[in-house]
């Protein structure tokens, strides 16, 4: 179609005649002559050489086309499709008004800008006619601020012009699935990576890529026809200047934010990169200007930024090449993606400035989406690499933690109300009621003289590891290995307790019995089975950490611990394997099932309160254990007589028992004591308590 146009009103000429309050679109009597218009796009400020900043102008264009009688457009719903039009306008077809967006202002300014995109104007039935049809459009717009930057919004910006077709074809050809897809993808990627940064703030390149994707999403959405069809193109819609500000404002930070992403992705804290700082500073100034400048200056601001954009894109290529030269990981992939996108970006920028082609090819959007995918693949690769490193680090930490727990039991840490070893500090402590368990390999000094140094360690480990296994199985834990001795602790509440009604006393005693039985099956030809002495006491103690900044250790202190140690030492004196105090004995839930007997009431060295000692002979040889069961009541009778000072009657009982079983060390001990006191009567302060003057 051939178009012609005329400038029908400016500040120097008389305005055209009015018809019923409106400018006469036929304008046949216009004082301006009609000129043939060039090919689209049509920027009237440039075509009519309007003086910069000279105000508001009106331009009238017209064209004609023929339709045959057989043309289907005469029988189907038809419309006019305009890729863009602005700033104010009226459209007539065959002298019938189809649509107008015309807003007068008394101060000779545009009251509202209506530069729309992707506009479809339906043609009412009967307006199109066979033969010649004439379309006329009246424009009103503002002169450019400078002669170097025309006001592209005043006229038609796209080279494709317009088309008249059926509404069905217009709607089918106007789909923007690609834009919708890209907008959604960029937004999701951007939002995801921003949230990812919130959880991992040490990697700021996730934040910059997230912002880069979000800005890209906003930019492509604001440039698409989709936003105009939904929010702008309806009659009397909003002022489009806000949408153009949004479009330009989202474009300005994209490249600088990408540079920040690339810098942190490849270099982290290396270098100052003054060029990136300068580009970012300049872009911030352009971004602010986009929102605060009067709208007529917006295109000039954009043009200046476009001239800055080209060196920024070149610098992006240079930056990527430097990353390759320095052998940065993934730099080759990024360079390829950047190279393709930058070339299309430079071409798109030059086309926008100089109208080389006059339309924005979709190839840039496709190249840009490929570029985004390349970056995402790099981020995924980086994340997988970090994840593998994290797994290796976690494995190493797990190994160190397991190693630490071999020195500091996890039960000890739990009792201190700590979740991990790193939370432990010097001075942490807690008071708790527990059962303390001391075990010692008696006669180890003699055995060690027969073994080589390395065999000594093997010998100890053979016993100690087996002992620890029994202790752990019964919900206790080893606090210390002291040479050939073990200090273990049992708590009333343990997740590892297999039976609900078991308490610390039951668990400790069960461990002792199993250990005594175990010593009979472990041994070598040179050493034979080991002899074991175990002392158990229950009471209040303090668990805590001691040491210095360079060395820290756990410990338990209190009378309960000291008494348990003394009781263990007494196993050698009484020649028994397991001794427990009355504090432990009275807490046993299974008293009827425990093969135990009272053997003495003593006051150990350094203490003032007596303690009743019980021998547990559950682990003794069956014959000896049966003997002790059979004479337990007789032994108790003798001990009572001994305590009340009836040494003659007590001696008679112990002598009789000794004759029957001389291997019973307790019977033998009491036989000697009562015989001694028969010959040397104790004083009137006799209370039947045996006082120890050594540990």
Short description:
The protein is α+β, with helices and mostly antiparallel strands and 695 residues long.
Mind explaining what this structure looks like?
The protein folds into 4 domains: 3-173, Jelly Rolls (Sandwich), CATH 2.60.120; 177-386; 424-620, Alpha-Beta Plaits; 622-695, no CATH class. It has 20 helices and 24 strands. The strands form 6 sheets. Strands 14, 15, 16, 19, 20, 21, 22, 23 and 24 form a 9-stranded mixed sheet that branches. Strands 4-1-6-11-8-9 form a 6-stranded antiparallel sheet, with no helix packed on it. The protein has a 3-stranded antiparallel sheet with strand order 10-7-13. β15 and β16 form a beta hairpin. The protein is rod-shaped. The chain starts with a strand and ends with a strand. 36% of the residues are buried. The model is unreliable at 10-30 (pLDDT under 50).
State the main characteristics:
4 domains, membrane, 46% helix, 695 residues, alpha+beta, nine-stranded mixed β-sheet, Jelly Rolls, Alpha-Beta Plaits
Main structural class: alpha+beta
For the termini, the CA-CA separation is 119 Å
Q: Number of helical runs?
A: 20
Q: Total domains, how many?
A: 4
The portion of residues forming beta strands comes to 15-25%
**Would you identify the regions where 5 or more consecutive residues have pLDDT less than 50?**
10-30
Largest sheet: 9 strands, mixed
Count of beta strands? 24
The percentage helix is: 40-55%
Name the shape in a single word: rod-shaped
Overall pLDDT metric = 85
**Gyration radius, rounded:** 49 Å
């Amino acid at each position: 179609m051939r178009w012609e146009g005329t400038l029908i009103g400016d500040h120097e000429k008389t305005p055209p005649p009015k018809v019923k309050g409106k400018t006469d679109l036929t304008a046949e009597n216009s004082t301006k002559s009609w000129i043939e218009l060039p090919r689209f796009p049509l920027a009237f400020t440039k075509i009519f050489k309007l003086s910069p900043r000279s105000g508001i102008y009106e331009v009238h264009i017209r064209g004609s086309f023929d339709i045959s009688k057989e043309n289907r457009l005469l029988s189907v719903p038809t419309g006019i499709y305009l890729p863009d039009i602005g700033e104010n306008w009226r459209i007539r077809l065959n002298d019938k008004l189809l649509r107008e967006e015309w807003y007068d202002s008394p101060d000779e300014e545009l009251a509202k800008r209506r530069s729309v995109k992707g506009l479809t104007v339906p043609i009412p039935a009967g307006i199109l006619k066979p033969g010649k049809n004439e379309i006329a459009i009246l424009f009103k717009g503002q002169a450019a601020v400078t002669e170097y930057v025309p006001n592209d919004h005043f006229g038609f910006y796209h080279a494709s012009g317009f088309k008249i077709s059926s509404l069905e074809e217009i709607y089918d050809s106007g789909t923007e699935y690609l834009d919708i897809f890209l907008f959604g993808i960029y937004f999701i990627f951007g939002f995801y990576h921003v949230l990812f940064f919130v959880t991992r703030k040490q990697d700021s390149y996730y934040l910059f890529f997230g912002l880069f994707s979000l800005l890209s999403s906003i930019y492509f959405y604001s440039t698409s026809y989709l936003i105009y069809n939904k929010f702008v193109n309806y009659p009397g819609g909003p002022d489009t200047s806000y949408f153009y500000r949004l479009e330009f404002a989202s474009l300005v930070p994209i490249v600088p934010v990408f540079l920040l992403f690339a810098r942190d992705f490849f270099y982290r804290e290396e270098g100052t990169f003054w060029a990136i700082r300068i580009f970012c500073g300049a872009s911030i100034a352009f971004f602010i200007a986009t929102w605060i400048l009067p709208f007529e200056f917006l295109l000039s601001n954009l043009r200046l930024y476009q001239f800055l954009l080209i060196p920024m894109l070149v610098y992006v290529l240079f930056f990527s090449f430097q990353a390759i030269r320095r052998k940065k990981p993934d730099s080759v992939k990024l360079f390829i993606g950047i190279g393709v996108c930058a070339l299309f970006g430079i071409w798109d920028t030059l086309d926008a400035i100089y109208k080389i082609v006059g339309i924005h090819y979709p190839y840039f959007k496709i190249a840009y989406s490929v570029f985004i995918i390349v970056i995402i693949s790099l981020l995924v690769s980086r994340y997988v690499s970090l994840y593998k490193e994290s797994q290796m680090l976690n494995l190493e930490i797990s190994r160190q933690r397991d190693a630490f727990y071999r020195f500091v039991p996890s039960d000890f840490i739990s009792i201190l109300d700590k979740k991990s070893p790193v939370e432990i500090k010097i001075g942490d402590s807690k008071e708790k009621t527990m059962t303390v368990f001391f075990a010692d390999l008696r006669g180890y000094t003699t055995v060690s003289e027969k073994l080589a140094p390395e065999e000594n360690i093997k010998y100890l480990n053979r016993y100690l590891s087996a002992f620890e296994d029994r202790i752990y199985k019964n919900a206790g834990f080893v606090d210390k290995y002291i040479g050939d001795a073990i200090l273990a602790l049992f708590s009333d509440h343990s997740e590892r307790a297999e039976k609900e009604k078991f308490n610390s006393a039951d668990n400790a005693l069960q461990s002792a019995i199993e250990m005594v039985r175990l010593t009979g099956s472990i041994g070598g030809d040179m050493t034979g089975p080991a002899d074991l002495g175990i002392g158990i006491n229950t009471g209040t103690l303090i668990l805590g950490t001691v040491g210095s900044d360079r060395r820290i250790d756990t410990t338990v202190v209190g009378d309960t611990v000291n008494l348990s140690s003394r009781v263990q030492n007494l196993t050698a004196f009484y020649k028994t394997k397991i001794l427990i105090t009355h504090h432990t004995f009275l807490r046993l839930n299974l008293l009827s099932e425990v093969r135990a007997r009272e053997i003495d009431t003593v006051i150990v060295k350094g203490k003032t309160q007596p303690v009743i000692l019980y021998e547990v002979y559950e682990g003794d040889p069956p014959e000896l254990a049966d003997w002790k069961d059979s004479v337990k009541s007789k032994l108790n009778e003798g001990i009572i007589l001994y305590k009340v000072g009836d040494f003659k009657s007590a001696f008679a009982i112990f002598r009789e028992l000794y004759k029957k079983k001389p291997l019973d060390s307790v019977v033998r001990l009491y036989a000697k004591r009562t015989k001694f006191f028969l010959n040397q009567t104790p004083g009137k302060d006799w209370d039947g308590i045996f006082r120890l003057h050594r540990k």
